[in-house]
Amino acid sequence: MAQHQGATAGTVDACVRRIRAGQQTAAEAADQLIAELTEDELLWLLDGDTPIQAALKLMSRMKAGPVVGGAVARLGIPGIRFSDGPRGVIMGRSTAFPVTMARAATWDPALEREVGTAIGLETRAQGANYSAAVCVNLLRHPAWGRAQECYGEDPVLTGRMGVALTRGLRPHVMACVKHFALNSVENSRFKVDVTVDEHALHEVYLPHFRAVVAAGVDSVMSSYNSVNGRFLDVNKVLLTDVLRDEWGFEGFVTSDWVFGVHDAVGSLEAGLDVEMPLRLVRARGLPAAREDGRLPHPLVVRSAHRVLRTTLAHLATREQAEPSLEVVASPAHRALARRAATRAMVLLKNDPVGAAAILPLDASIGRLAVIGRLATEANIGDHGSSMVDPPSTSSPLDGLRAALPGIEISHLDGSHIAAAAEAAARADAAILVVGMDHRDEGERIQNDDADLSVLGFPFTLRPLRRVIGWLVRTRSQFGRGGDRATLTLHASDERLITAVAAANPRTAVVLIGGSALIVEAWRERVPAILHAWYPGMEGGRALADVLTGAAEPGGRLPVAIPTDPAHLPFFDAEARTITYDAWWGQRKLDRDGHPAAFPFGFGLGYTTFEHTLVDQRVGETDGTATVRVRNTGARVGSTVAQLYAVDTALERPVPQLVGFQRVDLDPGGEVTLDVALDLTPIRQRDPRTRLWTRRPGSWGILVATHSPSVFDDVAPLAAPSA
Ligand code: BGC
């Protein structure tokens, strides 16, 4: 870009000093900078700085450092210095945390905030100022390929965890929440149109975005899909009427990458501030529109102002100490990753075999058979934009060998079922590690769906599209992943489980995957099942901690596991249009009278708890429930007190999570908790007035250890106190 001569460099620094001294607001400083910028520089702020010629090198650039948009060196404007993402920083060799879905299973916002702090520090230490780690799309169907990047099916859990991550990030980097909105099908993400009515939109699919906006998130990333017939970049209803006018968002909106902008001027009008990351649709379209008068100057200034004001406010309020590169994958962050992984693992079943349950493993066992191809893989998630490349990893087998040095551990990959069964028969117990990997699920770019014409060439010829598709697949990591073909395990894994469990009744199955896995074909054949998700770089060690009892499995399901895919909402990975209603996950199972295999919120520990609701104070939108919790078992352990509101007048009540709190207690220990309530799930929004009121019904409240199906202990929900 041609640089305008004559103005002083370092102007941003001066603005930041004035803001910090209270002499100027960030908005005033942004106006001042805008007055200094040339017309070309103003447009420069509205898209990424990477030239289109570098498109195929984008992946390697993202690993090497931040991807920048809108840097203007002569005024010291740093630009948006972007890095992903949800399970750790994708640059360099950073800490790979358990995936977002796993962290949702911790139900531990304080821990999530610590993870946010760590990701923020590692992002900043590597030169970025903007992190797209906060992914809060609601899981409508567990086959979604990117399920692992979000916090599961519940708006309250998703909102609390997204807010916690945002709060952790923000002292170090600008936080971006994505993908706004209703992005939860992968294969057709560039084309699918989601039809949704105002109720489902505002009451189910958006409350958690709103919560993150209310918590001060700096930026919102629009999604690729369209909603009610308008792609998000040109969707004024969502980007302006809802996000700005109704919610009061003051930060800036960026597009999802490369294929997320369809109209240079139209997107600016609708409220999309920055096209990321290439000089693409806007670089081609905006200068011409300016020349022929189709580009209103105030629109350019509006978006430039949002970007600069937010950046300046961030620079003035962030922690002033610069983190050194030593924070990246530091021992403290690895320890955090390990702690988060143990807290995330959900013990679904742990029946006694003979006198005792097989988990935690009995210290007296002499021989352990560890079976499965995934037992030797550090399986840390998909190969999409959130892929992290940590400096080291630990597989389940590594973890168990290190934790149990005195025990003879054999490993078979399970490709020969009879041999695996024999090894299991010879051992005192068998651990089977089965499930998914990046080939089965994750983000993908598929040539057929991406609209290559955004690159500025007429890609209408099939052979040309094929070549480009091949290039995208080979030059990037995105060739695999996509939505899941099946919700069960692979048939070979199911055969392996059946054979191994028949050979040794002391068999525990460890599941790896990004969301619900249907286990009906073999659930009754094994005494123990542990869902480990994609547990991150310390996953093997964390798994060993849990299996040996050094830590307890702290996880609770952030998604219901059904018995039959037919009980779930309609899902078509190739759909061009789809309707999202207010019936999904546990709520749909409850409404339709289909018991879950494992309900939302479920998870066993190594001890037992008693929960009693003792009091409640309720306002219009929020409140507090007082709950007494007692550890009734013989071990230290943790539980999650879950508060559900329920309309008891319904023949089939549909519980709604309205609050939760995790607590750790010694054996016999007792504590009284004040649990914050968020009553949004029992409120409705009038589309005409945009006002919210409590939904009619006989509302009750109860404390439970998972989404309940028995309602004996329901207390009437107090009327809102004045
Ligand atoms: C993904 C975003 C991501 C971006 C940059 C896109 O393909 O959908 O989630 O932040 O790439 O990596």
Features:
19% strand, 30% helix, disordered N terminus, alpha/beta, six-stranded mixed beta sheet, 20 helices, binds beta-D-glucopyranose, globular, 722 residues
Fold and architecture overview:
With 722 residues, the chain is α/β, with parallel strands linked by helices. Helices cover 30% and strands 19% of the residues. It is built from 20 helices and 27 strands. The strands form seven sheets. The chain has a six-stranded mixed β-sheet with strand order 1-2-3-4-6-9. Strand 19 (609-618) and strand 20 form a beta hairpin. Helix 15 crosses helix 19 (539-548). The structure holds beta-D-glucopyranose. The site of beta-D-glucopyranose has 7 residues, from loops.
Computed CA radius of gyration, to the nearest angstrom: 26 Å
Helix count, per DSSP? Answer: 20
Number of strands: 27
Strand content: 15-25%
Give a short account of the largest sheet: 6 strands, mixed
Which small molecules are bound?
Answer: beta-D-glucopyranose
Shape: globular
Mean pLDDT: 95
